[in-house]
Amino acid sequence: MWALNIAIGLARRPAPREAVALGLVFGVAQQVKSNLYVFPALLVAWSALALSGSIRRRLVLVCGLAGSFLLVSLGTPVGNLLSVGGGTWALPGSAGRTLWWGNNPLADGYYNYAETEPAGKAFIEAHGLTTRLAQADKLEKDPLFADLGLAWIRENPGRFLVLCLKKLNNAFGFFPHAVTFEGSRTTEVVHLLSCCLIAPFALVGMIAARRRWLICAPLFLVLLSYVFMVCLFFGTPRYTVIVMPVLIVFASSALWICADYFARTYPAFAKLIRRL
Predict the structure, then answer these.
(1) Does residue 87 come out as left (phi exceeding 0), alpha (psi in the -120 to 50 range) or beta?
(2) Could you tell me if 221 and 46 are in contact, meaning their C-beta atoms sit under 8 angstroms apart?
(3) pLDDT digit string, tens, across residues 11-66
(4) Inter-residue contact 177 to 183 (CB < 8 Å)
(5) Exposed e or buried b per residue across 226-248, where buried means at least 16 C-beta atoms within 10 angstroms of its C-beta
(6) d(CA 236, CA 10)
């Protein structure tokens, strides 16, 4: 939310200091959770196309934003690259394995450890990776799992599109996945109430925000990048927490619009609002 606040300020008053601050803050946020990994690229494109000023000034803003973000976020990949030749602190990646868990013969929109099941083993064997996976270490396995996940998507485009709908449903929880709540009826009811109450108002707020698209673009880009990541990997409500503040902002805007409409239409309602 801090990064989004800076982004909105940058749209109102473009300045190199705000651009650098935005890259640094969001770079740190990405180290915590990378569910919005597409967002920085969209943010850079937005700053290049939508911000006011000359081409030279836009270039300065883009370089400040992208440079500060990369400065923070590339620490781990660079460290891994330098330490692969025998270093002891290289961190194994998980994007490839996660891609495979979300896109495999047993995929249902949530994560599935398919490599331990007969159908998953058969798919791995059909692509000639059984021996390589058995001999690979943690760093080497991740790109192999990524290849398997992408191969399944290429070979099953129709099933993948249907799976995307299931992933989005699992992410936003309108019809909760049984594994997500582990049989807890209380948790299920709370999540249903929160999403079902927020989502309609958030949609109204998004429609109303179209006239202020430049200022609100970072909020839309957050949602767009998250939806993309859900469709590519898988959905779960606890990951959706990262975009709930954005949905609440749009929903709050819609509530204000509704209150203003009723206040102008019904004098009694206006008196009630003033008293509150």
Answers:
(1) beta
(2) yes
(3) 888 888 888 998 898 888 877 777 777 888 888 888 887 777 778 888 888 888 88
(4) no
(5) bbebbbbbbbbbebbebbbebbe
(6) 32
